[in-house]
């Protein structure tokens, strides 16, 4: 056994590996050089605002567009120069990607017929996949006879049946209504867990991302901003952008003053947030974020840190209530509370005190 | 969709417009057809139905030969034009210079027929001189092939536009989906895109066949020592005037062209209903 081989034994080969992949269209940059590895068998989500480069990333993994720089590896093999049909990947598109002139079964079987498998084997595998996605009995239908959700299931079956090591999903649920999207999320997750294939899923919807992902990579402005588990991205984001995109956070920018126990972020005259033992020096610009549910709004201070605020808007949502408030210098903050836990029904224009625990404050240096 | 608030005159004018179009465009043609079945021909005192003129037509060996040439040219022109039009439409999808490309493709429609024909004639003459001096063989003598080339320049823009319109409805994600299922570029086109643009290809085939069948100016300049049906008809007419045979020939033209159109329309409608 060579050294390389033993290294390969100890460190599993990632299903997808991007090494400095980049895409430019003339002078326009769709994706700056980006590197990441996706562990085999995981559900990986590329999340971000539209136009940020996530679909470009996915299409480079698929082999539908060629990177202007960097390499793509699938199961360790360099596939950068191979077109989509010669990669060990299959794909689910946003919509309208079923072949309208074929039946559901022919759609699902298409990839297998290209492989020239025996006809009865093709049929049994296609039917098995349709059963897996909950569409047994639909094999003779045409795509236009199916609902949007059913069409996406057929697309999933068409990708699954090929038994590729990676399935790429490009906004697969974006065309569905909210309720259906939620149900399909659970189902996607279940299916991925049961088949164990690596899923790479592109979405701009954070709830969708949180529901299905083992790991989320946040991509914006042609850059991989941050990656981590849904818990990490939500609870302890490192980057300011992450805190602004995921969850419902109040972001405050300021300058660090003081050292050690005395360190604090000065946001405005009279508005300071203590940051004991902040790992940065005096005078550095920094941001903090606080989750809306970590704020407490009450007639008087109820937590260690507090600031007087004016209530601007109150949105009663049943289980929870969202309140937009204004900090002393006019900055907005968002508070979410379970309706039952509110000490009083606030109205717009009320004066109140916003309090939070010091641990709820997350510091972002970039 | 509701028309409840539409001005009734809008509706009446539409009908009037349509009737005018039919009257101006179609009545003379149908009248010619009507005359072609009259024993006495045009201007006869009374109408007497007969197949005689058509029978004379088909008994005329010369005319049968011209019909043969016409059909042969039409088949070759269709067989060359449709693949060329498909290629052009595929190229259009990919090129970044769409407007100049369409302009280039449609140019032959805007150059007068006799100018194109004369230009090609001179061009072929020059090519002949060239190939003769280089290869010792005049490769562009006027023949079936020069007539075919002349007709293709005329038919290609139409076929291109018809195919382009159907192709515009095709969703490129489907071709990508085929690629990710393991199809190469050709398979993705043949299995997924072509079946969906088949109607357009079919329509443009019929269209090109009619255009070729009816083409006179270019063919007359560029044909070899034979006549097609249109060139025969014109020279016959110039020699003999409007004899009953001319009416029958015109009638034959109309019937052939119209039946192609009707077949295309019927198939398209049947396809859409199913």
From TrEMBL, chain A:
Family matches, as InterPro entries: AAA+_ATPase, ABC_SmlMolc_Importer, ABC_transporter-like_ATP-bd, ABC_transporter-like_CS, Mo/tungstate-bd_C_term_dom, P-loop_NTPase, Transp-assoc_OB_typ2
Domain ABC transporter: 16-246
A cellular component annotation (GO) from this entry: ATP-binding cassette (ABC) transporter complex
Gene Ontology BP, a term: quaternary ammonium group transport
Classification via SUPFAM superfamilies: MOP-like, P-loop containing nucleoside triphosphate hydrolases
Domain of life of the organism encoding this protein: Bacteria
Transcription regulation among keywords: no
GO molecular function, one term: ATP binding
Database matches in SMART domains: AAA (SM00382)
Keywords: ATP-binding, Nucleotide-binding, Transport
Pfam families, alphabetized: ABC_tran, TOBE_2
Keyword rRNA-binding: no
Protein name: Polyamine-transporting ATPase
Species, as recorded: Thalassobaculum fulvum
Automatic annotation (TrEMBL), chain B:
Listed SUPFAM superfamilies: MetI-like
Entry superkingdom: Bacteria
Biological process annotations from GO: transmembrane transport
Membrane-crossing residue ranges in chain numbering: 15-37, 67-89, 101-124, 144-165, 199-217, 246-270
Domain called ABC transmembrane type-1: residue spans: 63-271
InterPro entries in the record: Bact_Polyamine_Transport, MetI-like, MetI-like_sf
Topology of the protein relative to the lipid bilayer: Multi-pass membrane protein
Compartment(s): Cell membrane
Leader sequence residues: none
Pfam family, one: BPD_transp_1
GO cellular component, one term: plasma membrane
Alphabetical keyword list: Cell membrane, Membrane, Transmembrane, Transmembrane helix, Transport
Stated family: Belongs to the binding-protein-dependent transport system permease family. CysTW subfamily.
Protein name (record): Spermidine/purescine ABC transporter permease
Organism name: Thalassobaculum fulvum
